[in-house]
């Protein structure tokens, strides 16, 4: 457990009265190992930020053009996000580590003696929060902590059970996540007057609590809407987060599906801060809304078809294509179908990206999984995903407006789920939503540790623009 000598400097800096000190050190003494690691990482980050501010507060990071303002703020460097950085050519790096680096370095199911071989989302969470690669023992401890917190309060179960089956699973997911804020440690501490320097601690506790509970929320929705799983959301304390998730969904007997979910959830965790879900949680969290409310808002953004819902849209598009030209379609037929989609004014889901200008490394990671897994390799849908990924960039590349004709992660993700038996497309974005918390919530913890202010960019009217651009 945490020794008093290593009480986080963030608490020391707060010059808190003795009573609050005791409360802070008490909470640290019972903290998980991950919390200890975060407490150690925070003062170093605070110092680095302080040094940057002291030296560069007025240094320009670039101009703002009218194009940026009208173009969804693309390219504007306007937020701090520690977990990952997205490079247009190289793709995502989590604290500098690419997906192949993570696959090599992060503790996997195999390292923990579990069935399977893929990296564990718990390992990714540790990396995202601390910037460090955890040991297998540290990940095992984190898995056990998440398992101990995974059960839903009965009032949330009742709320989920009251939703009509016809309500989209993402709407249910966001509503149930918001309702979990009934027990928010941050809200309770804020009401009692917690000091600003200590905000990160209950934010961390809420974040871990929410990450632990998201699989049970998702599984209950899956059971209610699609009748799969046993509806009980029982949690095995000896299993990892996704081992339990897979069990709850009714796929626990499939090592392949469980391992696929581990990879899926690890690589969807974070994609820097500017995407709709990540930015939404950051924005809402900047008002000091608790992690449950902030992440609920993120889920509502993820539910949009240009963002997370694209993984559902891809399957709808594939189904339409199979109905129209059959399962064994030729390259020419697929090319024509792609051209017809574009000509009809619709987007080809799973292709393009606001930042990336190369194939998405997350797509490559899933493709690699498909190629290396005999039970998936020859599945018709998986084969079609691979086939389309070679033709679509050529067709989309002919358009002079589409900046990135390559596949993104959504082009591949649904095929694996379908092949393993999860054929219910309207649940796919929920699986994504279980994952995105791994990146969005650590950012809330860091934003509070670094004392970031409420977000408040300046908007302009057409009239104001006309005047200022005269
Ligand atoms: C992801 C996405 C929203 C990025 O949008 P963006 O940053 O505006 O992309 P671009 O700058 O390349 O867009 C320029 C134009 O090309 C179009 N375009 C981009 N990707 C396209 C696609 N896959 N199919 C058809 N048209 C596309 C845009 O709709 C836009 O058209 P418009 O000028 O008529 O509005 C866009 O590529 C898209 O809609 N893709 C399909 C949905 C998807 O897969 N989303 C998940 C992303 S991880």
Report on the structure:
Helix 8 (154-162) crosses helix 11 (200-226), helix 17 packs across helix 20 (380-397) and helix 20 packs antiparallel against helix 21. 59% of the residues lie in helices and 2% in strands. It has helices at residues 9-13, 18-29, 33-56, 66-70, 99-105, 121-130, 136-148, 154-162, 169-179, 185-191, 200-226, 241-249, 255-267, 276-286, 291-302, 310-325, 331-343, 361-372, 374-377, 380-397, 410-419, 428-449, 462-468; strands at 84-87, 91-94. Among the domains are: 143-307 and 429-449, Citrate Synthase, domain 1; 323-419, Cytochrome p450-Terp, domain 2 (Orthogonal Bundle). The longest helix has 27 residues, at 200-226. The chain has 470 residues and is mostly helical. A hairpin with a 3-residue loop joins strand 1 (84-87) and strand 2 (91-94). Mean pLDDT is 92; it is low at 1-31. Residues 306, 310, 342, 347-354, 401-404, 408, 410 line the site of coenzyme A. Belongs to the citrate synthase family. It is found in: Mitochondrion.
What small molecules does the structure contain?
Answer: coenzyme A
Radius of gyration: 23 Å
Please state the second-level CATH architecture of the domain at 143-307 and 429-449. Answer: Orthogonal Bundle
Fraction of residues in helices?
55-70%
Structural class: mainly alpha
What's the total count of β strands?
A: 2
Q: Name the poorly predicted regions.
A: 1-31
In the CATH hierarchy, the third-tier topology of the domain at 143-307 and 429-449 is known as Citrate Synthase, domain 1
Residue share in β-strands: under 5%
Mean pLDDT: 92
Strand order of the largest sheet: 1-2
The biggest beta sheet is recorded as:
2 strands, antiparallel
């Amino acid at each position: 457990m945490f020794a008093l000598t290593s009480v986080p400097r963030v608490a020391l800096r707060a010059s808190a009265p003795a009573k609050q000190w005791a409360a802070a050190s008490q909470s640290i003494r019972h903290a998980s190992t991950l919390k200890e690691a975060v407490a150690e990482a925070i003062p170093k980050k605070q110092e680095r930020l302080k040094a940057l501010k002291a030296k560069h507060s007025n240094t320009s990071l670039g101009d703002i053009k009218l194009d940026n303002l009208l173009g969804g703020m693309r390219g504007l460097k306007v937020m701090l996000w520690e977990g990952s950085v997205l490079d247009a050519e190289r793709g995502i790096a989590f604290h500098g580590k690419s997906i192949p680096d993570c696959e090599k370095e992060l503790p996997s199911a195999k390292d923990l003696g579990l069935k399977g071989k893929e990296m564990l989302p718990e390992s990714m969470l540790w990396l995202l929060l601390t910037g460090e690669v955890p040991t297998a023992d540290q990940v095992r401890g984190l898995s056990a902590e998440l398992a101990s917190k995974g059960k839903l309060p009965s009032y949330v179960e009742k709320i989920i059970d009251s939703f009509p089956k016809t309500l989209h699973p993402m709407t249910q997911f966001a509503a149930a996540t918001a309702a979990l804020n009934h027990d928010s440690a941050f809200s309770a501490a804020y009401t009692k007057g917690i000091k600003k320097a200590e905000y990160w601690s209950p934010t961390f506790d809420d974040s871990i609590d929410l990450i632990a509970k998201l699989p049970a929320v998702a599984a209950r929705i899956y059971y209610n809407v699609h009748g799969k799983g046993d509806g009980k959301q029982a949690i095995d304390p000896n299993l990892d987060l996704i081992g339990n998730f897979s069990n709850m969904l009714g796929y626990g007997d499939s090592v392949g599906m469980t391992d696929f979910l581990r990879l899926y959830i690890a690589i969807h965790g974070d994609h820097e801060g500017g995407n709709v879900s990540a930015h939404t949680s950051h924005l809402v969290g900047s008002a000091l809304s608790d992690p449950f409310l902030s992440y609920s808002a993120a889920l509502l953004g993820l539910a949009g078809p240009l963002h997370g819902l694209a993984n559902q849209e891809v399957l709808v598009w594939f189904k339409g294509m199979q109905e129209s030209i059959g399962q064994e379609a030729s390259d020419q037929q697929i090319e024509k179908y792609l051209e017809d989609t574009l000509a009809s004014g619709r987007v080809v889901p799973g292709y393009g990206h606001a930042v990336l200008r190369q194939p998405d490394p997350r797509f490559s990671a899933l493709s690699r999984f498909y190629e290396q897994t005999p039970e998936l390799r020859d599945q018709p849908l998986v084969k079609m995903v691979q086939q389309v990924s070679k033709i679509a960039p050529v067709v989309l590349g002919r358009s002079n407006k589409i900046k990135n004709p390559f596949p993104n992660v959504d082009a591949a993700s649904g095929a694996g789920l379908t092949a393993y038996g999860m054929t219910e497309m309207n649940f796919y974005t929920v699986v994504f939503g279980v994952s995105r918390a791994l990146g969005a919530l650590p950012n809330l913890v860091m934003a509070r540790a670094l004392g970031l202010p409420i977000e408040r960019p300046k908007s302009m009217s057409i009239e104001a623009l006309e005047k200022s651009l005269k």
